[in-house]
Amino acid sequence: MRQPSYLSAPLPALLWALPLLAALAAGCGWSAPPTVNLHRAVQVGDLDQIRRHIAAGTDLNQRDGNGDLPLHLAARAGQVAVARELADHGATLTARDSAGRTPLELALTHGRTQVAVLLVQLGAPLEAQAMLVTLVHAGVWDRDSVDFLLRRGADLNRPDAQGRTPLHLAVTLGHLETVKRLIARGADVNRPDGAGRTALALARARDPRQPNTADIQTALQQSGARP
C-alpha cells in the first residue's frame, strides 16, 4: 500500500508545516478541551486551562462546594490576570459568595489591592466608607487595603448614622489590632459617639472577661484617650 505523501516528506518540510497547521486550527476556532476543573485552574493561575474552559462554554459563574465563584477565588488569591480574563468573558463582578462577600470585598479583606484596582476599573461598585466599616467589623486591617479606601474617599473619623466612627466600632467589637492601627493612622481617640461616649468609655463598659478588653483600654490611654 502506498503511504501518504506527507509521511515521505523531508523532516524540515514537516517542521515548517507545523506552525501553519496550528495557525489553520486556530483560525477555525478550535481549542483543546480543558483537562482541569475550572476552580482548580483559577486557584493555581492556569490561564491556558481557563481559556480552554471559556472556549468550551463553561459557566464562569458556577459555584464550587464552598459557594465560591471563580472570580472570588481569583480575588482571594490575588490572581490579577485570571480575574481580568474571567471578567472580560462574563464573570459577574457583584456576585456574592456563601458568606455574602463580593470579589472586591474579598480582594480588600486579603490585601489584594491590585485585584481591587482592576475590579473597580472594570466597573465593580465601591462605597469606600461602607467598605472600611465592613473591614473593621471583620477585624481586618491591611495597610494597603485601607490606603486604597482612603484614596477613594473613606474617612477614619466619619461617623455612621449612630454617630459611631470606625474606632468606636473596633473598640466595641474587641478588635485590638484594628484599634491600634486606627489610632496610628490618625483616628480621633476622644471623639464621642452619638450617645456622647468616647472610645475609652466604650472600652470600660465592656465585660472585663471579654478578650482584649484591658489591652484596648491601655492602648487608648497611652494615646491620650479620655473617658
UniProtKB/TrEMBL annotation:
<keyword id="KW-0732">Signal</keyword>
<dbReference type="Pfam" id="PF12796">
    <property type="entry name" value="Ank_2"/>
</dbReference>
<feature type="repeat" description="ANK">
    <location>
        <begin position="99"/>
        <end position="131"/>
    </location>
</feature>
<keyword id="KW-0040">ANK repeat</keyword>
<protein>
    <submittedName>
        <fullName>Uncharacterized protein</fullName>
    </submittedName>
</protein>
<feature type="compositionally biased region" description="Polar residues">
    <location>
        <begin position="210"/>
        <end position="227"/>
    </location>
</feature>
<feature type="region of interest" description="Disordered">
    <location>
        <begin position="204"/>
        <end position="227"/>
    </location>
</feature>
<dbReference type="InterPro" id="IPR036770">
    <property type="entry name" value="Ankyrin_rpt-contain_sf"/>
</dbReference>
<keyword id="KW-0677">Repeat</keyword>
<feature type="signal peptide">
    <location>
        <begin position="1"/>
        <end position="22"/>
    </location>
</feature>
<dbReference type="InterPro" id="IPR002110">
    <property type="entry name" value="Ankyrin_rpt"/>
</dbReference>
<feature type="repeat" description="ANK">
    <location>
        <begin position="66"/>
        <end position="98"/>
    </location>
</feature>
<feature type="repeat" description="ANK">
    <location>
        <begin position="162"/>
        <end position="194"/>
    </location>
</feature>
